[in-house]
Amino acid sequence: MSFEVDPVCGMRVDPVRAVHKTVYGGRVYYFCSKHCKVLFEGDPEYYLKHGPVGMLSGRGEGED
Ligand SMILES: [Zn+2]
Fold first, then answer.
1. Distance from the CA of 5 to the center of ligand 1, in angstroms?
2. Domain residue spans in the chain?
3. Element (H, E) at 29
4. Model's pTM, two decimal places?
């Protein structure tokens, strides 16, 4: 089973069950909620550059 990461808040999203998703730059991004999707669509470059700005404070651990 593989997860996608919500680019807005950093939550893991199951792409099979995700209902909130959008296509940007030729790939699909998944979101935990409509709220995150709306934020991403408002400024996708920001979130792609800066990464998730939600719950993740200790980045760099457990990412594989
Ligand atoms: Zn989210």
1. 9
2. 4-50
3. strand 27-31
4. 0.78
